[in-house]
Design goal:
Helix content is about 85%, strand content about 0%. The longest helix is centred in the last third of the chain and has 22 residues. The radius of gyration is 12 Å and the shape is globular.
Length: about 70
């Protein structure tokens, strides 16, 4: 997961406001929660909702953004 985070960070530096990259970051953070909900749940859940809100502002009609925001 560390390699995935590094690749996402590198990609985000190239294209900051790409909703697909933002969604992928949120999915990676959900994977961290799945690994240890007691350890990561409260600290990461707020970050996930912020990522989906940012993606929703950029691409309101993107189906993946809408689906991820509804979870």
């Amino acid at each position: 997961m560390i390699k995935a985070q590094k690749l996402l960070d590198d990609t985000a530096s190239i294209s900051e406001n790409n909703p697909e990259i933002i969604i992928t970051k949120a999915l990676l953070k959900r994977a961290y929660i799945a690994l240890g909900i007691k350890k990561y749940g409260m600290s990461i859940s707020g970050k996930i909702s912020k990522l989906y809100s940012k993606a929703l502002q950029i691409a309101r009609k993107n189906s993946r953004v809408i689906l991820g925001n509804s979870k």
